[in-house]
Amino acid sequence: MIMSRRQAIAAAAAVMAAPHLGRAQSQQRPFRFVVNVGLQNLDPIAGPSFVTRNFGYLVFDTLVALDGQGQYRPQMLEGWEVSADKLSWSFKLRDGLAFHDGTPVTSEDVIASLKRWGARDPIGRRLIAATAELVADGPKGFKLTLSRPFGGVLEALGKPSVHVPMIMPARIAGATPPTQQVSEIVGSGPFIFLRNEWVPGDRAAFRRNEKYVPRNEPADGLAGGKIPKLDRVEMLTLPEVAVRYAALTRGEVDYLEYAPVDLIPRMQRDRNLTFAKAGGRAELIYAVSINHFQAPMDNVLIRRAIQQCLDRNEILAGAGFGNELGRPDCTSMLMCGAPFESTAGRNVIGSPSIEKAKALLAEAGYKNERIVLLHPLDSPLLNPFGSVLIERMKQAGFNVDVQGLEWAAIAQRWFQRNPLDQGGWSVIPVVYTGFDMSDPLSNMGIGYNCTGSQPWGYCDQRITPVLERFESESDPDKRKALAAELQKLATEDATFPIAGQFRSPAVWRSELKGVIDFGFPVIWNIER
User: What is the distance between the alpha carbons of residues 250 and 247, in angstroms, rounded to a whole number?
Assistant: First the structure.
C-alpha cells in the first residue's frame, strides 16, 4: 500500500509520540536514517535519483570503490593487471562473494551487469564503446580489451554516484533493459532488502547480511571492509522538516541525510548531535535541467537568458546557504575543491543579471511562449531554489507555467518527451553532488552530450571531439586542460546551467560509532 502525504505525516507524528527509549531498548531498536525524498525506484541503473543510489549501496556491491582520499581501490575485486599500453586489463573477483539468494558471484554476473550499466551511464557508454572485448576468464576472472585508449577505466568501474555500476545476477541484468526497473532485487552487499515491508515513497527496511564477507582493510569512504554491524536498518522519509529535527533530537531516528538548514545553528549547540564535515566532491550544486527537445528551449539564446537569471548569491541565500555553507563565487561546473575545478567560462556567468536575461530574450525573438517549470514542493533543498528561480524568470519576462509537484511525480515526467500540452516540461530545478559533477564524463552538462540518453537532450557538436580527446587521455595535466575547455563550451551553450555550490551536511546522533563522513549515507561500519 502506498501511503498518502496525510498518512505519512500521521505516521511521523506517531513516531514522535512514542515514549523515550531506554538504554537496553536503544541497543535493540532499528537504525533509522532519514533521506531527502521518498524511495520509489529500486534499480540503481534505471533509477536516476540519490535515494536510489543510497538504497543501492546497502544492497549491492561494486567492483572498485572510491576511498576518502579520492583513490580508486579494489572492492569486489581481488585486484587487476594492466598491460604496458593500458589496452588490456585482467581482473579477478575475491573469495567469498555471494548474492543474497545464495548463489556465488561469477564473472558472467559481472559482464552482464557492466553491459547493462554501460548502455545507460555516460561513462559506461564510453567505456563499452571503447571496448573490443569483455569476456570471462574462468568463474572468477574476466578480461577487458580496449580497441582504443581510455584514460578512466578504474574511474568508470568505481563511479561512486548516479549511475553506479553495481553488480547483480546475470539472469536479472541480462534480461532487463537498462531503462526498465528490474523486477527482483538481489544484490551481494552488506544488507538484505525486506521487500514485503517496503512502503514506496515512505520507508524501506533491511536486515544484516550475516554471510557478507568484508575486505580485511579498515573501512575508508566507499572502500575497505564493509562490516554490517546493525541488525536492522530502516530508511525513512519524514516530509516535515520540524518532524525530522524533533525525531533526531529525541532519538527516534539516528541520522539525517541533510540537516534542516534553518535549524543548523541551533543543532550545532546540541552535544548529542554530530555534523558531517566532508567538502569538495561531497558538496552539492544547484542547476537547471533544461529540456533541449522542446521549443523554445532549443534556442541557445533562450537558455542563456535562463542562465542569466541564476544569481548564485540570491539563490543560495534564499535556500538558507548564504553563510559559510555556500560558495556563491564558484562558477565551476566541475565543482570547486574537486580535481577538475576551473574558472573557464566565468566571463559568461560570473555576473548574472535580469537585464542581461531581458536582452537575450529580445535578441532571441521570444514571443511569450509558455515555459512549464516543474517545482519540487516536497524537497527542502529544491523547493526554495525553485521559488527564487520562478521569481527571477518572471522578472526577466518568461511566461512561466509553474506546476508544483512531489519529486516522485517529477521524476516520472522528467524522462518523457511529450509536448507541453500532454504532460511535457521545459525547466526543472535540480541538485547534484560533486560525485556526479566533478568528472567531465559523468557531468550532467558535459558527459551526456549528443547521446540522447538523458532527459535534457543537449547536443553541442563542438563538445564531442574534446570529450573524445579527454576520454583517451591519461596524462593528468592534459586531462585538466581538456576539462577546462569542456566547461567553457558547455557554459557557452548553457547545456545545464549551474546555480550555486554549497554544503548541506548530514547530521547524526553522537552516540553512533564508526560513521563514515563521505558525502552521502554510508551505513556499514556504524554501531551504537
Answer: 5
C-alpha span between 521 and 342 (Å, rounded): 28
Using the structure block, give the residue that is written with the C-alpha cell 512531489.
Answer: 406
Grid coordinates belonging to 326: 555556500
First to last CA, the chain: 32
Cβ(395)–Cβ(405) under 8 Å? no
CA distances (Å), origin 56, targets 49, 59, 94, 206, 372: 11, 5, 20, 12, 32
Using the structure block, give the residue that is written with the C-alpha cell 527564487.
Answer: 388
- Give the Cα-Cα-Cα angle 489, 412, 428 (nearest 5 degrees): 40
CA distance 197 to 233: 12
In the block, residue with C-alpha cell 553522537: 510
Are residues 32 and 181 in contact, defined by beta-carbon separation less than 8 angstroms?
Answer: no
SS (H, E, C) 222-255: CECCCCCCCCEEEEECCCCHHHHHHHHHHCCCCE
Which residues 6+ apart lie within 8 Å of 329 measured at CB? Answer: 312
In DSSP terms, which residues pair with 65 in a beta bridge?
Answer: 73
Q: What is the CA radius of gyration of the chain?
A: 23
| Cβ neighbours, 10 Å, residue 157 | 27
Residues 6+ apart with CB under 8 A from 387: 318, 375
User: Could you tell me which of 238, 262, 199 has the C-alpha nearest to residue 16?
Assistant: 238
3-state secondary structure 414-468: HCCCCCHHHCCCCEEEEEEEHHHHCCCCCCCCCCCCCCCCCCCCCCCCCHHHHHH
Q: What angle do CA 502, 477, 119 make, to 5 degrees?
A: 70
* Sheet strands (E) in 259-351: 273-275, 284-290, 326-327
| Tens-digit pLDDT string for the chain (528 aa) | 333 444 444 444 444 444 343 333 444 689 999 998 889 999 999 987 889 999 999 999 999 999 999 999 999 999 999 999 999 999 999 999 999 999 999 999 999 999 999 999 989 999 999 999 999 999 999 999 999 999 999 999 999 999 999 999 999 999 999 989 999 999 999 999 999 999 999 999 999 999 999 999 999 999 999 999 999 999 999 988 899 999 999 999 999 999 999 999 999 999 999 999 988 899 999 999 999 999 999 999 999 999 999 999 999 999 999 888 999 999 999 999 999 999 999 999 999 999 999 999 999 999 999 999 999 998 889 999 999 999 999 999 999 999 999 988 998 899 888 999 999 999 999 999 999 899 999 999 999 999 887 778 999 999 999 999 999 999 999 999 999 999 999 999 999 999 999 999 999 999 999 999 999 999 999 999
Position 314, amino acid: E
- The whole-angstrom separation of Cα 346 and Cα 28 is 53
* Residue 106 CB-half CA count within 13 A: 13
How far apart CA 382 and CA 276 sit, in angstroms, is 20
